[in-house]
Amino acid sequence: MEKELVFGHQNPDTDAIGTAIAYSYLQNKLGYNTEAVALGEPNDETAFALKKFGFKAPRVIKTAANEVKEVMLVDHNEPQQSVSDIDQVTVTHVVDHHRIMNFNTSMPLFYLAEPVGCTSTIMFGLYKHFKVEIPKNIAGIMLSAIISDTLLLKSPTTTDRDKKAVKELAEIAGVGYEKYGLEELKAGTNIASKSEEELIDLDAKSFELNGKNVRVAQINVVDLPEALERKEAFLKTMKDSANSKGYDLFMLLITNVLDSDSTALVIGSDEALASFEKAFGEVKDSEISLPGVVSRKKQVVPPLTEAFK
């Protein structure tokens, strides 16, 4: 059987990398020949989780068609978030928890999308469905993914299934999920050592909204005022990125993981900013407070999608 590559989205987070590892292991147990790879280097939080559970970071690929004919996607489906030559390979499997947009294939495929907090929660169900035992290290990386995506079960995206999966996976992995979860989340909040260019691209996704190119980046912190001391530098870097890459709107969501609140920095064309304000309210000096907003997937993209119609 020819090898397939399994990967998550560009600028990968713990879900994109962790679920790719878990899905590759499961598919290999089911008779496929797969390798988990990544579309970027792991961030600090993901590196912490990989080290904790004894994994090496998956190798990073820029293209897929030079290696394989078929691929499996996790934690994304939109082409602009995927490998650059996604149109040159056949997608055989997708496991995701996001909206479905601009995705089409010429051949039938396995597609599983569910409205849960994390793709690893879906993966947990697949292991049970296929009656495949979850190894300790796989349980740990899946647990890490759910903790990351749900902000330790505090995000509004969290479902009862996520909570159940976290408890069972923590038991298999041999960790206390609350203590470990705080350690994991804090590992991803060290922004002082990173440049503005690095931070606005660390966890960023592009969305096509009614013909407009919208970029939404997110960084997690434990000290929001300290992060906002870099506001002018962030705005300059965002403007440079928008000009060079053609973004109509660039939003940087700065999220305090301890109190589950965010402040957003926003730049863009007058038309795009008007649509943004229709969704979230007035932006003053390129800044807006968003109490309780922590989820790009559930609390940012849906209202933006409606506002840009």
Automatic annotation (TrEMBL):
InterPro entries, alphabetized: DDH_dom, DHH_sf, DHHA2, DHHA2_dom_sf
Xref: SMART domains: DHHA2 (SM01131)
Catalysed reactions listed for this entry: diphosphate + H2O = 2 phosphate + H(+)
Annotated DHHA2 domain residues: 181-308
Protein origin, superkingdom: Bacteria
Keywords attached to this entry: Hydrolase, Manganese, Metal-binding
Entry EC number(s): 3.6.1.1
Pfam family name, one: DHH
Cofactor(s) named in the record: Mn(2+)
Enzyme class per UniProt: hydrolase
Name of the featured protein: inorganic diphosphatase
Native source species: Lactobacillus kullabergensis
Lineage start: Bacteria, Bacillati, Bacillota, Bacilli, Lactobacillales
